[in-house]
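Support request, please re-run this one:
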Amino acid sequence: MATIGTNVTLLDLKSGMDPDGKPAKIIEVLEQNNPILSDMVWEEGNLPTGHQHSVRTGYPTPAWRLLNYGVPQTKGTQVAVTDTCGMLEDYSQIDKRLLALNGHSAAWRAQQDKPHLVGMSETFASTLFYGNTAVDPEKFLGLAPRFNSTSAANGQNIITGGGSSNLTSIWLIGWGSDTVRGIYPKGTSAGLQMEDLGEDTNVDSNGLMHQVVRSHFVWDCGLAVSDWRYVVRIPNIDVTALVKGAGSGADLLQLMAQAQEVLQSTTGVRTAFYCNRRITGWLRRQMMAASNANLSWTEIQGKKVMTFSETPIRRTDAILNTETAVS
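Re-run finished. Output below.
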């Protein structure tokens, strides 16, 4: 499926789909319940199982030239990487008689299916940050395993918060088609499927039977990081040590300002901070204590969003308060 323009979100993909189609309806529910999807750029992979691409690890160094003298040939360095998609699936089932009592209403059935889509959205968000294919090969590789050591090649984009327990992270991401993006398998409608399986007989744990109608939901999705310079992680924030005056514990506003300077660029990308509600609460308190004008509220796509120096702050409770320390 061809995408429309560049730096497209799931909602952009939805606009190019049949409005009565099932993938378009799934996207609407997923986006409503996952603020990350308001920013995240998506791209069709070049493989049925994901996307093969090059990650730049070094840039050529040109030379100054004198007349009648040549310059040496230079070459950058790249590494071929294949990012795979995970297959996220779920089923819903509704008692056939209950559906009949509600007039076989498609709208009522969609409401019963909605919690399953919300669950998929939350599971995706958790995997986006913590998915580790070395431990759970059925998932896709998330951000934390890619940014987990200050001595790694991308360690300069990790700014530690100084804590050693009760830890969480703040992430700053510059989403773009050449930087960081979601991927879905080649030839699919954003990797999404919804199938009405019709009527079936359900047998419960006691061997009792009743008729149900089932729906099947599929989301094949993954993550590709082509340029690690567009991801900044602020880990090792001890959530129990935070104070409103930032006299001890992590100074969140200072760390976020530093992260913005570390991010390679904001040109041509869609940037946002991501943190959980524990952090957004302390951000507001530290901002009020410091009278810091960099933290404000801005209307984005008709919604009030907290921003730091004009960068949206998205609250996602998929980010834990029990992270392993990054060393």
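Residues 106-130 form the longest helix (25 residues). The chain has a mean pLDDT of 90.
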